[in-house]
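ugh ok fine here u go
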Amino acid sequence: VSRRMAVVCFLALGTRGDVQPCALLALEYARSYPEARVVFVTHAELGTIIAGMRDTSEVVAERFSLSLITTPCFRRDVTDTDREGEQGRHREESECGEGDDDDDDKQTSSGIRSSVWEQRMIELDHCLKQAKGCSFVIFNLFCLDAYHIAEHLNIPALAINGYPLFSTAPTRLRPSLEREFPRLMEMLDSANPGVSACWREVDTWMWPLFSEEHETIRTKRLLLPPVPFLDP
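structure:
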């Protein structure tokens, strides 16, 4: 990235433990490159913590700005407590034979999934707005949508992570890509690691980018090809 008039956008979501290491990196970048300006995007509930980490130097303060999203630090799946609470509202009908526990579970799960998706769209729109006009995007793995944002805006991006990764791609992913995108798989298999994207990177951390939810974001919201690395 050219240091001249560079605006670097850090997109960091998740809990404090996920976000704070990214903030330290962003602050160090602002201190090291006086020609650059840093925009740090994260959850509003972490704003006070991140603001307290800022350098007291007025020069750094002027070049490091926070942009806060109102969504909570983490999204959650449906829990037994959610199901019990929802079923309690319908217990009387259910005991009379007018309700169905399976239907209640499905409605509860559907409602929470809808809420989680709405939160994700808020985060996507906010991150997209902040990344526009930037020279570079750096994101943590709780903000994988940033990869699509950078591709949409045609700017370089870098993924960072503060701890080792132990999960790998679902076993069905590779056969699915080989069937639907054989040329893409050939490219990933023949790529030189460290030089261009390769299957090892997909298997290590990029595999969620090939899910149906990410495909929806790419095709419906950002007008991109359904999966990464495909020509428009």
